[in-house]
Amino acid sequence: MIKPQPKKLLNKKDGQIAIVYSTILMIAMFCPVAHIESISPELNLDKCVHIILFAILYGTWLNAMKPYFQSQIKALQISIAFGLFTELIQGMLPYRSADPYDLLCDFIGVLFGFLIIKHFRKLKVNSEKRS
Q: Which end of the chain has fewer CB within 10 Å, C or N?
């Protein structure tokens, strides 16, 4: 009798990239850092960095799960949970602090990554239809 093989959760290479990126991001978020200065009262470099890093995080996890059903939802869940987890842990560290605005920027970054990827996939589908 042949036993069905369990479905792998991640593509091997892309899954490794997502895990390595997540690990590096976690280490960076838990290391002590000097106070990050604001560029201006309206724009803080730290917040912009959070948006960019979490857009990339979403993209790496989406790419790692691309052949699976509902991978966008799973990548969104992983990325948002990661942001929540890192902010909670930062709140427990004596040399870091949890910042609700960082968490908001993490969510915005994930959403930004989602929208960018959705836009480029739509462009790709439209260009393939014309060919």
A: N
Residues 96-125 have pLDDT tens digits of 888 899 999 999 999 999 999 989 888 888
Question: Phi-psi category of 43—alpha, beta or left, where left has phi over 0 and alpha has psi -120 to 50?
Answer: beta
Burial 52-72 (b: 16+ CB within 10 A, else e): ebbbebbbbbbbbbeeeeeeb
pTM of the model: 0.81
Specify the DSSP element, H or E, that contains 84.
helix 71-92
In the numeric block, which tokens belong to residue 27? 């280490």
Residue pair 56/113 in contact (Cβ under 8 Å)? The answer is yes
